[in-house]
Specification:
Elements (H helix, E strand, L loop, with lengths): L2 H8 L3 H12 L21 E4 L20 E4 L1 H7 L5
Antiparallel strand pairs: 1-2
């Protein structure tokens, strides 16, 4: 647990709290390519991917702490590549 993360965590609750906990668990590291993105550094945060296929608006009810095992941290590029956005 780091100082950068503690301030960031204190400002979050509910859905976002669960997503931050997943990033913390994964050491703010993309689980695909290894890219690291710490909070409060001015760079885009890493995405959270739902292993159960519930990404996007369908995932709102699944971002609960009891479902954290179905979430992984990915950079935007790796997250994009996990989905079929080309039709």
């Amino acid at each position: 647990y780091c100082i950068l993360c503690s301030d960031f965590m204190n400002k979050r609750d509910g859905r976002e709290h669960t997503r931050i906990r997943a990033r913390l668990r994964d050491n703010f590291t993309c689980q695909e390519c290894g890219k690291v993105r710490l909070p409060n550094t001015g760079v885009r945060m890493l995405d959270i991917h739902h292993l159960n296929g519930m990404c996007g608006k369908n995932s709102l009810d699944y971002d609960r702490i009891e479902n954290i095992g179905t979430l992984i941290t990915l950079c935007h590029k790796c997250h994009f590549n996990r989905h079929d956005f080309n039709g």
